[in-house]
Queue: 2 jobs
Job 1
Amino acid sequence: MHPMPKLFASSMRLLRFQLRQDWLKLMLWIAGISLFSIAVGYSLPGLFPTSAERQAIAETMRNPAMIAIIGPSGALDHYSIGAMFSHEMLLFTALAVAVMNIMLVTGHTRGDEEEGRLEMLRSMPVGKLAVLSATFMEMLLANGLLALIHGIGLGALGLESMSVAGSMLYGVSLGVVGIAFAASSALFAQLAASSRGAISLSLAFLGANYMLRAVTDVSAPEFSWLSPLAWGYLTEPYVKNSWLPALIGLLYCGGILSAAFRLNHLRDLGAGFLPQRGGRAHAKPSLLSPHGLALRLLKATLISWIIALFVIGITYGSVFGDLDSFFEGNESLELMLPKDSTYTLTEQFMSVLMVILAVAGTIPVLTAIFQLRGEEKKGRMDAIYAAAVSRKRMYFTYIAIGAGIGIVSMFASALGLYLAQAAVMETPIDLGTILLAALAYVPALLFMLSIGSLLVGALPRWTGIGWLYLVYCFIVDYMGGLLQLPEWMKKLTVFNHVPKLPVESLHWGPPLITAVLAAGICLAGAAFYRRRDIIENR
Amino acid sequence: MDTIVTIRGLSKRFGTFSALKNVNLDIRAGEVLGFIGPNGAGKSTTIRLLLGILKPSSGTAKIFGEDVWSRAVEIHRRIAYVPGDVNLWPNLTGGEIIDLFIKLQGSGDVARRDELIGRFELDPSKKSRTYSKGNRQKVALIAAFASDADLFILDEPTSGLDPLMERVFQECVEEIKAKGKSVLLSSHILSEVERLCDRVAIIREGEIIETGTLEELRHLTRSLFQVETRIPADRLSTFPGVHDLEQTERKAVFQVDSEQVGVVLEYLTGLGVMKLESMPPTLEDLFMRHYEKQGGRQGASHA
């Protein structure tokens, strides 16, 4: 008999070590998400004091488009503060929690492995599976803490419709979604052969889950039980308080995690299970230029985003059919439309959807421009700038790619939206209307690009501000109406200044001003970028 | 002789930390300049300033008579660079990266490239994520030596190479030197510097503390002597320039400052020299001496 190998040796020591590295990051994530939840919970009673007001909101939720976006609710007839809170907040918050888990897990598994840090650890008396188990324990602690803070914080608001038990379940629901995605990422980290591959797979899995549940929530709710993301809101905190989905989530984690452990044990350090393609001995001519290199580096990411945006467009477009037939039978809703409006409710919803598509479309734009800084950080710009390539050329190469991807993004999601709604609606919206509504956001995307480029030029260590601004825009534009945020907060998001076609009429002023501002900020960024040190920061 | 690189009063501060203080340095046409100094002394900072990747805090640096910051792109058409830490794109193959570097630099020839790939024994069809440190360095070296640059800036280019590849590297440097190219070679492998370099500059804590040919530098330091005399040389320890004396009855091993050699030899001759061996100081001795003298470590005692 072989002695049992000590696969988990030093797990606890590694856990303490990782916590020491991560505590600030963890605190920021957990505090950010928790404070946001509690602040919304705190402000809802003031915003919607009477049940009549809440019921008015509930009526606008009673349609497939809203179900696809924010999820279903079993309490639309009695839309209490608690029901409203868990309906409007849970799915959205769970997405953020899932992203937190994906980033931290892939960082400590594939990320550390790729940078050679794992090799150092493995040369010490540390078990083969210790890093993975320490990482998962860290995520258990983080999600547990997040659940606890939500439970206590929301429960402490003392609202009649938000019981302590319901608040605890709300927190647990978020935590369960979190560890479900932590476990999934741990599995993907074994399958992929690189840190980037692991992050892409995990995020794609999250996106697919969001889309899957959007479709099943609308047309076949029982199938939503298959999605780890749906286990969050299926507990229906404050409404049914069902612990079953959380339990399913824990079982799922156990299964996925043991698979991840098994695969981690089987594979060599640095290897993955998905096939690695060989390469060519000499470069194709298309690679041999600054833009050729940049496009090659970004290719996989950008193509995945275009496909993802097209699919998001299709998903939203596919619920338009249900939306149409729903409105036909609902006279009270039609009365809510302005009398002189020549636009259908479907078109009004489309203009709301466009903001979400634009926020999603900004992600590849920022990814592209921040690649310029990412390459610098990894020490790869030295070799480029030691060759006969100017800073200006590299900078504007990335600006051009960012601008191009912004246009393509909006185009792809508009096309997906058009095709899907044309297939399901009796009187579909025409392509021109949809395209114009989508392309009206392009100047806003360029503005986001310019903010990104200014950060790369002037504050290269603080490019995270670009993402924070995008999150701010998303929260304000997505929840601004619900939270009745002050006007100045709305004015600070660039998407707020985009004409909401086709419902609003097309004014050329705001898009034009936005585009001019974007160009100016880009140039300022270039001036900073050309004058500063290239800083390696691994 | 033409001067290719002129550095005058060059300083670089990172916040409050002075990485480089008032550096003056020249590289002449056709020479190989060795650039040595302990870790963190400012070698790579100097090189990154020369490449226009960092902006000088004060002072000037010129290559081919042009300012390294404002005329970077023009200068770089005639420069080849090999960094110490070669960071490559994990998803591209070695061959693709070599082609990219050659193309971006602007000069280079395919036959020379293929010849170098053969000599360095690199498999160019592998993704660079599978390369060891040595193989990553080969990628940068092949791209650099395949170019038709006039100045080669090599920052610890051989730290990951095996002895066979190290020899190929030295051959390559000798070849470009024979073509009249100039080389700035920063290295910790002092035997390599001794073999390849015409002149040496030593940097410590951001300051150039010594420049000159190896001969000139040797003159500033000590030689090692091993002697055997008929009469015991018992007054040897009283000479001011003698260090690290180890003495048995008639044998002595010691170091002596260059300027004291004459006096010591005179004394020894009177004692009836039976055997005398002298070894010039190696670059390592020079280096250690500078390092210890200024590093605040104890005196001149070293192995």
Job 2
Amino acid sequence: MKSETVTTTSETEELDPIQEHVQSEYKYGFVTEIEADEAPLGLNEDIIRFISAKKNEPEWMVEWRLKAFAQWQKMKEPHHWPNLDYEPIDYQSIKYYSAPKQKINPKSLDEIDPELKRTFDKLGISLSEQKRLTGVAVDAVIDSVSIATTFKEQLAEQGIIFCSISEAIREHPELIKKYMSSVVPVSDNFFAALNSAVFTDGSFVYVPKGVRCPMELSTYFRINAENTGQFERTLIIADEGSYVSYLEGCTAPMRDENQLHAAVVELIALENAEIKYSTVQNWFPGDKNGVGGIYNFVTKRGICLGNNAKISWAQVETGSAITWKYPSVILKGDNSIGEFYSVAVTNHHQQADTGTKMMHLGKNTKSRIVSKGISAGVSNNSYRGLVHVGKNASGARNFSQCDSLLLGDKCGAHTFPYIEVKNNTAIVEHEATTSKIGEDQIFYCNQRGIDTETAVALIVNGFAKEVMSQMPMEFAVEAQKLLAISLEGSVG
Amino acid sequence: MLSIKNLEAGIEGKQILKGINLEIKPGEVHAIMGPNGSGKSTLSSVLAGREDFEVTGGEVSFLGKNLLELSPEERAGEGIFLAFQYPVEIPGLTTTNFIKTAVNQIRKYRGLEAYDSVQFLKLMREKMGLVEINQSLLSRSLNEGFSGGEKKRNEIFQMAMLEPKLAILDETDSGLDIDAIRIVSNGVNKLRSSDNAVLLVTHYQRLLDYIVPDYVHVLYDGRIVKSGPKELALELEEKGYDFIKNEVMASNEA
């Protein structure tokens, strides 16, 4: 067993014209004025019953939630190990349910409140199928409820279930009972237990045996209401020999309070199945002085349950005041493959502690980790990863590449790679680099007529290229722009 | 085209250029020679607008504009090109994409429409022959893993693509073998015209066998201490920089 810690903080002595902070505009910071159906502040058993009742859940689900709540009450917030610094969260000053007042389960998209439709139009997500992005089905979640899911019928023709998790609990209890919390147990961690007690909405996907999902599935998460937390739950099951590519996007209004987002995402890939899960995380990061922003505490885990299964995570993380997130893969089936591609950008006062866990249990399992951290302003960006090779995982292979790029001289990049190997046939490789956008690089671009903002965008996108190329085509361009916007004004 | 009057500049309070005077007209090639530490690279950097250097006196006008008031990218837009002594690497950014961005930003500065991919590739193919550069190099990350010769050829290729009015070649010959010098020089010679000018900054005379200057200036201790026709370079080569030092010291004593 080996564990190592590498910390790199750039020097502060250098002569540098960098650090002229101009707050780049957060494009999605607006609030939709809409009447909402809300729970009172605070958390107790009655609130949980309230949420469950709002969602017309069966009795077994209420029991499940209450058990999770009891678990959570015995647990402590993990404050000691992440490289994050924030004031303790007051869990009694959060609203755990807020839903726009509109018809639940609209029969057609025409029944959706036009104000909500406009909100999603402004976010670039069209809920009218005519104006849809080609080949992308969307589940739109605002605060605590899913308001619409597009292309359900077309997908159903192939036996694919794509709906909100609330609907799945009512309509497909056998799948929920079998798989929910099978990858992330209720007691896995503090935030997972909290989520299990109070989760409100999220997406459910089931792709049947041998079916290749014909379009990208995506969920768009939007926090709108004040003082609320968003607790989404997503469950994706790819049955034997199936394939699905799923993508999530998220934004929130600009507010000077911190809002909590604690999600649980579980992926299950059966034999020969493949799941590709991509995230473009653009929660409000707080202003340039570090006021406001989303606290993003997320548990994402997939399991390659059958042989030859594959799970691939790709994430572009530009938002949130705090990001605590480790999309992981349990490689249980023989010959299964896990991948993690990540670009995490922190600017101003943002803090990110993100990475992955690759748990090699089956034989000849392979994993690949490519993490690119970009820090600017006075932000802190940490990669934290674990590669575990169990004693039966003969022939396991892992390759990890963790690169950090620093803009300016007041930010930090940290790498915490942990490696545990219990089988001596395993091959585990780890490479790490830290570099700084040099004035030399900027000047070189300037001398060729390229302005500084464009130069930074070129350098950063070059740095992140390997990960960006993993994003679905429809979102790659958007993600590239997002990188550039997130860093606007970080080099002056 | 370029007129430098009493230019003084330094870095971190240390004066390096102590009053440079130089006139360059269209169609001319000027060579600046001098020993290490005489201020050659500082002069190139100041003309290109590098912020590390502080201009403490004098004037520089370029095509009628006050050059010192312009940002580096504006200077590039006006037609100043610097071939770097040490071209930087940008991992993940293809050379082609970099040059396309540069060409289009300069076109924008000049009020011209951006080239689309087809127009750009056509221009690129035209210019590639000039410096014997091949497509595979251009699709690699900018300067990453390039040999010394490839980096310098890439600089001259960029010069060909950007068609500057004044090209400043900063020690372009350093670290190159004779074959590479010949290729790079051929490229520069093919780009010479009656409209543009070249300022060669070099330590050694050998580059001047290939790119023949109209004037040679000797830079010593932040000043141009001697100017003359191309033969001056040969004299320097023969006698070494010491003879300049002695001349300067003799004149100081007199």
